Amino acid sequence: MNEFQEINILTSRGDINGALSLISKWSESVARKILKKAGYRVTPHAGRAFWTWVQVTLTDSAQQRRCG
């Protein structure tokens, strides 16, 4: 199973910790590609702003139990 599929499964189940743990082990450029492939519209921000966006977006998705 690919990371983007796992991200979507975890957020649809409401598992924010699992989703953040999975994405945070990758570099920013790889994380950006994974999120794009998972169906998220990725922010152009970089560095800390990008990772803050990832946290907010995945948390929101997990709370609503939806995927990218």
Written description of the protein model:
The protein is an all-alpha fold and 68 residues long. It has a domain at 1-45. The protein has 4 helices and no strands. It has helices at residues 3-13, 16-24, 28-38, 48-64. α1 packs across α4. The longest helix is centred in the C-terminal third of the chain and has 17 residues, at 48-64. The radius of gyration is 10 Å and the shape is globular. It starts with a helix and ends with a helix.
Topology:
Layout: H1 3-13, H2 16-24, H3 28-38, H4 48-64
Task: Supply the key terms.
68 residues; mainly alpha
Number of strands: 0
Instruction: Report, as a whole number of angstroms, the end-to-end distance.
Output: 16 Å
Largest sheet: none
H/E topology pattern: HHHH
Strand content: under 5%
Q: Structural class from helices and strands?
A: mainly alpha
The residue ranges in which pLDDT falls below 50 over 5 or more consecutive positions are: none
Helix content: over 70%
Q: Which of globular, elongated, flat, extended, rod-shaped describes the shape?
A: globular
* Gyration radius over CA: 10 Å
Count of DSSP H/I helices: 4
